């Protein structure tokens, strides 16, 4: 069960926004990722918890259940027969509950977990590409916007460290509506680097 920390930054100016402490593992039917999001601290420390992420997928990497809480808001969703359904409400349980269903693959948000699910769902061969329609959640209120992304697997490279070989998938991800894009580098179910995401710490099971 890999565990570690991601540093989440503003992709435009590099300002450190949060630290996401995570653990993830394959399960009997798919994969699960659980994380808590913390304020940046000083001297390597982290501050209080400001959010959480819980993602469960099936063997085809479809998002069966996703829960994201941050900024006082909670979004909970998952795949249904009618499409991807989700609700948004204040995290404290007060206020109006918004219910939505869209014909999309699933959610996209700042958490690296959702980069992993999109990349593995696309199941690309080198130089292959796939277009995904997703609902993007924008902090701090987790407002939802439908977006189209094009994932392209530029190549696979092998990195050697001591007696270990790591296969890294190098993707380019384009926002087809905004015309912007960036590089995403994955090793298995861990994001090594992506716009606004840096892997700061990783511990593999013994």
How are the elements arranged and paired?
Blueprint: E1 3-9, E2 16-26, E3 30-40, E4 46-58, E5 63-70, E6 73-80, E7 83-90, E8 98-102, E9 106-108, H1 112-122, E10 129-138, E11 143-161, E12 164-175, E13 181-187, E14 190-194, E15 197-203
Parallel strand pairs: 9-10
Antiparallel strand pairs: 1-2, 1-15, 2-3, 3-4, 4-5, 5-6, 6-7, 7-8, 10-11, 11-12, 12-13, 13-14, 14-15
Neighbour order of strands in the largest sheet: 8-7-6-5-4-3-2-1-15-14-13-12-11-10-9
Fraction of residues in β-strands: over 45%
Number of domains: 1
- pLDDT average, as an integer? 92
Give the C-alpha Rg.
17 Å
Short overview:
With 206 residues, the chain is mainly beta. It is built from one helix and 15 strands; from the N terminus they run E-E-E-E-E-E-E-E-E-H-E-E-E-E-E-E. The protein has one helix at residues 112-122; strands at 3-9, 16-26, 30-40, 46-58, 63-70, 73-80, 83-90, 98-102, 106-108, 129-138, 143-161, 164-175, 181-187, 190-194, 197-203.
């Amino acid at each position: 069960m890999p565990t570690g920390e991601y540093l989440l930054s503003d992709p435009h100016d590099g300002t450190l926004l949060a630290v996401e402490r995570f653990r993830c593992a394959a399960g009997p039917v798919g994969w699960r990722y659980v994380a808590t999001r913390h304020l940046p601290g000083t001297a390597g420390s982290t501050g209080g918890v400001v959010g959480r992420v819980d993602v469960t997928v099936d063997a085809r990497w479809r998002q069966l259940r996703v829960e994201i809480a941050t900024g006082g808001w909670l979004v909970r969703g998952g795949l249904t027969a009618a499409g991807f359904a989700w609700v948004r409400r204040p995290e404290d349980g007060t206020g109006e509950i918004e219910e939505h269903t869209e014909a999309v693959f699933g959610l996209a948000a700042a958490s690296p977990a959702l980069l992993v699910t999109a990349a593995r769902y696309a199941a690309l061969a080198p130089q292959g590409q796939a277009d995904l329609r997703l609902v993007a959640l924008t902090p701090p209120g987790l407002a939802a916007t439908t977006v189209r992304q094009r994932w392209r697997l530029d190549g696979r490279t092998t990195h050697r460290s001591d007696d270990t070989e790591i296969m890294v998938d190098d993707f380019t991800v384009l926002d087809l509506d905004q015309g912007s894009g960036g590089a995403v580098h994955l090793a298995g179910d861990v994001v090594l680097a992506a716009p606004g995401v840096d892997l700061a710490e990783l511990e593999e099971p013994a």
